[in-house]
Specification:
The protein has 2 domains: 111 residues; 215 residues, von Willebrand factor, type A domain (Rossmann fold), CATH 3.40.50.410. Helix content is 39%, strand content 24%. It contains 11 helices and 13 strands. The strands form 4 sheets. The protein has a 6-stranded mixed β-sheet, sandwiched between helices. It is elongated and about 85 Å long.
Length: 353
Amino acid sequence: MIQFEHPAILWFLLLIPVGVGVWIWLQFRNRKRLEQFADRTMFGRLIPDASRWRPHTKFGLIMLGAAFLIIAIANPQEGSKMVKGERLGSDIAICLDVSNSMMAEDIQPNRLERSKRIVNNLLSALGSDRISLVVFAGSSYVQMPLTSDYSAVKLFLDQIDCSLISAQGTAIGDAIDKAMQSFGYGDPDREWVKKQGRAIIVISDGENFEDDAVAAARQASSQGVRVCTIGMGLTSGTPIPEYRGGQRVGYKRDRDGNTVTTHLDEATLTAIANAGKGVYVRANNNSSVEEIVRMIEGMEKDSYGEAMFSEYESRYQYPLVAALFCLLAELFIFERRNKKVNLDKILIQENEK
């Protein structure tokens, strides 16, 4: 079975038909320009050493060589064999805000659904790290303890909605404490060892009304745990929709009948990340996940024992050789005919004899 190490690079193959289309258009335009100066039957006399097929052959070889080169860069791989190796990773706790404000639709489809997509992207980017999942609003609890089973994490993630916690509010500090507990901190039955290979990722709009989240992040940092934050929403503010029976019935209002708005509190999330010696990123920034993943990859790794890994053999050499052959062949083909060896003249002379 063939697979590619970098499949996204194969999108560049779409440039090949585009290049062919441009080439055909240029050839058609040049032909029309020539016809303005002379009749087609005169082309052979006006340009006696011009060749019809050589320019097309050269261009075809360039396009074919480019296609093989793109395939080589994508690194095709085949065959897999299972090898035993040491499994190294970090412990990551993801704290997901499920308060009602996460239903705001200032980022589509809404803050909560976008948060779940970010978690899925994180799981795809992380390697052999262990993951725990904490959900929080006015209170918090560990929904998924530390595990390396990403399929189970995704299964639990799909079940998350804003009805999981009845106590509304946003207690980020309590969520950080629960994340620490998922690492074993404060457990009398487990010996706590301070390490630099743990991180907490808080995904929230930052509207913290319940506790001192900065102090909780600072305490986590003192134990070697880095706290990162991902901001959900826009700073401009937006109303919070209310649903009944799956249908929107309006927007949340306060006791005076005024529409309640929610906005991204970047100041709070930045302060939490700074206290936790982590990073803060906004969810609508495409590089948000990448920046946090780079930080995690640079952290200390623990050994989780031996595991079986799939190992593939690279086969980029074959398309690379084919690309070099096409490009070298193109160099040795001249656009004009060789006057010393002209096949048309040889055929004419043979007919005259």
